[in-house]
């Protein structure tokens, strides 16, 4: 009697194939596990460095902010440091105000209004307009305070001049002058005379002379001022 072994031989390849698939799956699973462990270890090692890099700029920024804050505070301290007012500047402002050159606060601080007032004083005294006090400017100030001889008008020490009132009216008629009719030879009147002289081709001195008076009379008669109506 012959034994049939076909069934045994036919099942062997299937078993082998299944075993191979299981082995491959186990290898793949093992590989994935190793990869996962490697990734976890890598992340663990990199986290402190990343954390250090992340926090370092904050620390640097905090340090910079602290330094900047200190600098700003230092700057604020200087910017709020008050300069002591000067008694001599107060006196000057009061004197210039008395002569109607200055209309700002009597503060003792040298401000833009003080500079402008000194300019006006120098212009009226035919001095170089520097806006700063010097020996010649002080002498002009003392003289005007003593004689009430300011050039801005409105000072009660000097009576208004009818001749200057007439001149101001005439210059205003020709559109050279647009200030108040005060009877005082103020800066606006001086400039108006200069405009008249320029229009007539004369030297611009700001003061009336024979040639300037002739030009004024001519323009009043003919209405041909150079400033427009």
Strand content: under 5%
Helix and strand composition category: mainly alpha
Unreliable segments of 5+ consecutive residues: 5-11, 49-82
Rg result: 49 Å
Could you characterize what this model shows?
The protein is mainly α and 229 residues long. Among the domains are: 16-49; 87-147, Muramoyl-pentapeptide Carboxypeptidase, domain 1 (Orthogonal Bundle); 162-222, Muramoyl-pentapeptide Carboxypeptidase, domain 1 (Orthogonal Bundle), CATH 1.10.101.10. The protein has seven helices and no strands. Helix 5 crosses helix 6 (187-199). The longest helix has 74 residues, at 6-79. The model is unreliable at 5-11 and 49-82 (pLDDT under 50).
How do the strands and helices of this protein lay out in sequence?
Elements lengths: L5 H74 L7 H12 L13 H13 L10 H13 L14 H12 L13 H13 L10 H13 L7
Task: Describe this structure in a few short sentences.
The protein has 229 residues and is mostly helical. 66% of the residues lie in helices and 0% in strands.
Properties at a glance:
single chain, 229 residues, mainly alpha, Muramoyl-pentapeptide Carboxypeptidase, domain 1, 7 helices, 66% helix
């Amino acid at each position: 009697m012959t034994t049939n072994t076909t069934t045994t031989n036919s099942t062997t390849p299937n078993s082998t194939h299944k075993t191979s698939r299981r082995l491959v799956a186990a290898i793949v699973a093992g590989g994935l596990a190793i990869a996962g462990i490697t990734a976890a270890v890598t992340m663990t090692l990199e986290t402190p460095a990343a954390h250090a890099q992340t926090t370092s700029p904050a620390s640097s920024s905090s340090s910079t902010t602290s330094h900047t804050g200190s600098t700003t505070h230092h700057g604020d301290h200087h910017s709020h440091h008050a300069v002591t007012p000067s008694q001599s500047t107060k006196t000057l402002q009061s004197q210039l105000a008395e002569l109607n050159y200055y209309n700002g606060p009597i503060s003792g601080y040298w401000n833009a209004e003080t500079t402008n007032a000194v300019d006006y004083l120098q212009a009226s005294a035919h001095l170089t307009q520097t806006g700063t006090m010097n020996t010649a400017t002080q002498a002009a100030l003392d003289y005007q305070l003593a004689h009430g001889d300011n050039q801005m008008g409105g000072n009660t020490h000097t009576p208004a001049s009818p001749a200057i009132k007439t001149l101001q009216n005439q210059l205003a008629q020709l559109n050279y002058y647009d200030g108040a009719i005060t009877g005082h030879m103020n800066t606006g009147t001086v400039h108006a005379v200069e405009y008249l002289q320029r229009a007539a081709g004369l030297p611009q001195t700001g003061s009336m002379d024979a040639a300037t008076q002739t030009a004024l009379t001519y323009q009043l008669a003919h209405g041909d001022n150079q400033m427009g109506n």
